[in-house]
Amino acid sequence: MSDAGPPARVPAAKLWGVPTTVEIPEPLRLQHRNSPEGRTWLGRLPGYIGQAMRQWQLSVDIPAGGTAWHGNTGIVVPVVAGDGRRAALKVAFPHDEVLLEPAALRLWDGRGAVRLLESDPSIGAILLERLDETRSLLELPMEEAVPLWGVAVRALSIHPDNRAGWNQIPRIAATAERYCDELPQRWSDLNEPFPRWLLEAALEVCQTHGAVSLRSSGNDVLVHTDLHFMNILARPGTDGYLAIDPQVQVGDAEFALAPCLWNRLRDLPQHDAEAGLRRRASRLAAAAGLDEDLAVQWAVVREVENALWYLEAAGHGDDAQRSLWVASTMAGKTLPGLPPAHELKALS
User: Fold this and answer.
1) What secondary structure letter does DSSP report for 4?
2) What 3-state DSSP class applies to 233?
3) Which are the catalytic amino acids?
4) Neighbours of 49 (CB within 10 A)
């Protein structure tokens, strides 16, 4: 039995007179049970869900035999509001990126992203419009997914204004400045696990776009930094797609490209997958109106940092190989000794 105890069931409002419960998905419990903070949150999660259900007058809308949805950081319960509107209740483990989600969604206000209906930061709960979880860009052929991704990026790329919320969101330039100090030390602490030239390729980008760019730029926009294919869902009854699960920073829109390069590697051509990845980057950049060279540079930075993170964590060697393959391929010289693209650990 796990430290977090048996699966928790949350008493919920009645749905058309039928009592319902919400079971905490086992993968979510496994994700958080190994830290004191995680176990505390798991213990409180049923109460948080129940509180949100009561205060927003929600009813569970999970089909018989179905389960709530979940990611690594939280649970999403399909619900029906008192006025009959279908919605999604999300309760997340508290961390910086999750705490910024309501602020970002308010700034977008339904433009390119799922609409926020209610928020209660005291319990980490937000109520969202319900999208179609069975229809993401992951299910579409790449020739259809790429232009739709571009539409999403263009819609999400709003410039800072005088509304509240912008001052909460970190800047990409500050992230780059921090990487200038952190990445060399982390690389050294790991006994130089990949060639210095790849580290220096990432540092050159950070030095160019870090300290010198800490001032606000007229090109700065709100960036969804985890905009991969699974995080763009269809809006029911329409041909439109909207982004979910935002992790946000303010800066170059080109920072958004990278997740679409480390996902869907199985869709690359069997022959010369490296050239296929570069073509994908070019098509994505064109679809979103991005500067291709800058988007590629940021992708190298992000995958070098990802590789170091994976190498620092136990049991993620396969993930580190994937990051190094993408980073070095986009930097122009795929590292020798890595598995071929189609043998790398898949994300989606």
Assistant:
1) T
2) strand
3) 226
4) 26
